[in-house]
Amino acid sequence: MSVKNGSNTLILPSSVTSLPSITTPLTESNIKTLNPIKLFNASSSNTTTPLTSISHNPQGTYFVSTSPNGSLQLYDAIKGRHSKTIYSKKYGCSNASFTLRTATQSTPTSCLIASTIPTTQNDVANHAMRLLDLNTNSFIRYFQAHTRQVTSIISSPSPAFGLDSFYSASFDGSIRAWESRTEKCYACLGNMGSDPIISLSQSGTLMAIWTNDTRKLRIIPIESFPLGIIFEVYIPDIKGRVEKILWAVDDMLILDTPGFEKAVIDSFNGKVIGTLRGLTKFVVSGEEILRNGSSDVTPDGAWCFSGSGDGTILAWDMNKLKSIGNVNPIILRNEELIAKQVVPRILNVNPKLGSVVTADTEIVVSLYSPV
């Protein structure tokens, strides 16, 4: 299918009822139908500025992109069009995340963002996270505690822990627990190295913590956070910086190291049980910015998608990996995008509907179809 560029023309299907949802397991035949249907410039003012994050709201009806130039773009995922631009120019923006509260809203009214102030500046105000009002382009609340740049913002996926709960990690070595209705964090786990990354299980009951400088993985129950670390394991043979941790089927953990093979770990004992291979390194030009991962899993955790440096998207069957340790990926190529050097450096799977969003300096929306 030819990729359209620029306009807000509706080119997605008029109904999303036929798209796979969380209740419709994807098959290999579905995966092979993934096809780009819309391309957006990431920024109307500077198309060479790479994006730092892509995030969907809990219903999958909208997604946002963030950029270090301070622009946040909101997109209507169902209609396949740009909705609005919001700015945070003074601090930049990254790690956008919607709390579960927005699942009660037909259109999300707010999202959390971190700043992109350089990591060398130790200033609590500069590294505050912010709850941004998407209607008024104003900040509802500031969350000040981290003294260095934030590396992760993760909203709780479970209403059992509240609709406003979220967690953050920072280069200052701390992991903090928050509620978006108040400015003060209510729990803090310190001494987590100088570059921690966090992720929550799909049930929201467990947190995985990876520290890039020490190459250690920890699992901790949310119910007792910041106490009760279940285990701590040293995994030295990880190439590249882990940007994201993914929870796959049967609580397998995937360490997302963009452009490098990805270790798959048993979250019950910390053992490496397989590797996702076949990736090509991304070209790094100039100063590399912090991003929130090149991979994601489908809502049921059965498939892992990843962008690759050669412009392709790879997909691995995690159920097969669980059985045999290593599996060959399905390679999804679009020659038109590759010819235009459109790179899937960031990848985010819609949590409810049958679409995948990839981005670097452009945003591509792709759909897979029921077969």
| Subunit arrangement of the protein | single chain
Q: Any low-confidence stretches, pLDDT <50, length ≥5?
A: 1-20
Major beta-sheet overview:
5 strands, mixed
**CA-atom Rg in angstroms:** 19 Å
Say how many strands there are. Answer: 29
> What sort of overall outline do the alpha carbons produce when their principal axes are compared?
globular
Give the strand order, joined by hyphens, for the main sheet: 18-19-20-21-25
How many H/I helices?
3
Tell me the helix content: under 10%
Subcellular location: Nucleus
Keywords: Nucleus, Repeat, WD repeat
WD repeats: 143-188
GO molecular function: chromatin binding
Summarize this entry quickly.
This protein is mainly β and 371 residues long. 4% of the residues lie in helices and 38% in strands.
Would you kindly provide a written description of the structure presented here, covering whatever features stand out?
- One of its GO terms (cellular component) is Set1C/COMPASS complex.
- Keywords: Nucleus, Repeat, WD repeat.
- Belongs to the WD repeat SWD2 family.
- The chain has 371 residues and is mainly beta.
- It is built from three helices and 29 strands.
- The strands form seven sheets. The chain has a five-stranded mixed sheet, with helices on one face.
- It starts with 27 loop residues before the first helix and ends with a strand.
- The model is unreliable at 1-20 (pLDDT under 50).
